[in-house]
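FW: tagging you since you asked about this chain on Friday. Here's the raw sequence from the shared folder, copied in full. Didn't touch anything.
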Amino acid sequence: VLETARAEGGELAIIDTAPHSDNAALEAARMADFVLIPCRPSILDLEAIANSLDIAKLAHKPAAVILNAVAPSGSEADEAEEAITQLGGEACPIRLVSRVAYARAIVYGQAAQEYEPNGKAAREIEALHKFMCAHLHIRTPSQKGKKNEQVHRRA
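HL: got it, structure written out here
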């Protein structure tokens, strides 16, 4: 599938594996440029990501843990970031807060940006997109537009 995507000009493939599928996860990590590990800020979820962090290390790939379903207030996310560091992982600086927009968007078959384009959930996803593009050395659409503007100005 990935070879076909490359041949067709695909620049980005996102592979989602089950949390306990060691073989599939290791294979995906080996093919990855970057491993993003989603995790809720709870003790059970934090214990479960240890295996995912080990898989990324075995594959010699950079990885970050993104906290999702984070409470909008409280210290739980900060404590989870400390636990991620203690496990030898890197916490993504973006946090996905538990927001109604995420749940409602799914009901309508939409992304948060489609459901509520100017909402907080949409801004969080945009920040995550920029974070991933920076790590993967991919220009964002706004960066591509700026480059095109510079080309037109020179002409």
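FW: The radius of gyration is 18 Å.
HL: agreed, and Confidence is low (pLDDT under 50) at residues 148-155.
FW: great, closing this out.
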